[in-house]
Fold these 3 entries.
Entry 1:
Amino acid sequence: MKPAPFRSFLLISHKQMALTASRSTEPTGTSNVRADGILNGFKLNWMNLRDAESGKILWQSTEDMADPTREHEAHVPKSILKCRTVSREINFTSVEKIDKFRLEQRVFLKGNIIEEWFFEFGFVIPQSTNTWQNLIEAAPEAQMLPASLLSGNVVIETSFFDDTLLVSTSTVRLFYD
């Protein structure tokens, strides 16, 4: 079964965006220990981006881009901006059980937020390896920004959660080659 597509708009006014501050309902000490346990046992094994219509892989990486200790770089072909729908596959391993695994992604252009995306995976079995696919639909062509403006100026901030517990936040700077 194909996942429901997520529409990506590259031009969204700040008034349209609902920014959320997620906080754990657990006591601070408990939440930090739990978050550290999940993070220490979590690994992003690989990720790819495909043209969802043709199935052709346009970009792939085996770098653990969930590592929060540094800003990562992804060099993707600028032809990806011509795709109407992009399929993103993420393969990850978790030592710990995650009750409600989800991601919040914020897309920044030159430091200003232009998009916000929310994805839910759900329950993650401890000691498991999982593959997660999302479909992302492009904005209408008239609203697309050119690769020359985007390249090196787009940072995707991904926050990993177990329900309301923030586990980690990582960043990836995109380059369109």
Note: The chain has two helices and ten strands.
Entry 2:
Amino acid sequence: MAFNQPVKLYSMKLQSSDFAQAPKCVKIFINLPRSMDFDDAERSEATQTLDLAEEDFKDDGLIPLRYVKFQNVQSVTMFVKNNQGDEETTKIKYLTFIGTPVQATNMNDFKRVRTGLRSGKQK
């Protein structure tokens, strides 16, 4: 999942229509230079690994992310290792990330402003 601009993420919300098919262990990777296959995802160290429980899927449940590791996120890759009921299929009904944009300052947008004040005597 790519974002339009760099963001800071602090939590996510995840829902499934059937708890047995809801994700259990999820590895989250950020800003990968290339896509990865399942073997790469299994072997690679994730930015954060989530071990999810039933309360994480409630309507008001937010899953906290390690904010210090999610400061300049341009893309997120998720690998769902297994699900709650060891079912063959994992279902995600709703997924959203909660955070704020990284405010990048473009120095070309600034214009020099003169105040009209001069040093010296006034008449």
Note: Residues 38-43 form the longest helix (6 residues).
Entry 3:
Amino acid sequence: MKVLPPSKMSEARTELNVLSLSRDSPFIIRVMDGFVLENYYIFLEFAPFRTLDHLTQAMRGLGSDCARLYAMEVTCALKFLHERNIMHRDVKPENIYILLSGHVALADLGSSLRMDGDTIVSAACGTYVTRPPEVWSGHPYSKSVDIWQFGMTLFNIISNSWPIVHPNREKHISLVNNGKILFSDHFKDDASTNLIGKMLQINPNRRLTSSQILKHEYFEPLKEPYSPPFTLDNA
């Protein structure tokens, strides 16, 4: 259950509207019910394993192989949203829930924005560590902001670290604008580093789209039926 105070009324309405439009995607969290008392109460699909953030920290990084199916499922969620001109704007491990089936679903759509055509916006979005260069600089942005955030997220769930981070705000922004990424030993194959590098392009127009990501060689080892790394049977 998600509880939002009255001050979050706009966020609650946005999330419920987008979730109602996303019922056909198995990779976006489903809303089961909701009501208003003093607060807004939203009942979401059961996620007994919590989030990818919890799993990543518990395992100290999932590694390239274990993260592969999760990455494909999140990409499918983004593709679904982007085809409907919806930006998530806050993709991060804490917003990816692990469902009872062991598969994942993208959640927390309170910051999402539905666009008209190729509309671009400039309002700040994302967290400190996942915010892309165009947002830091105050430039207008579009759906490619989700791709940068997901590139940061994929790096994190693989390695339990961030490719770009500094506690000093100005130095952090400088590192983001520099775009240099160092890969640790958690990255066992060239495919994962190649994919992340193409997602974390400084120029938003050079980033892969969600459709292009799904065609990347990183996902070639996945074969149907897709079995999640962790379920109730092997947890």
Note: The chain has one domain: 47-219.
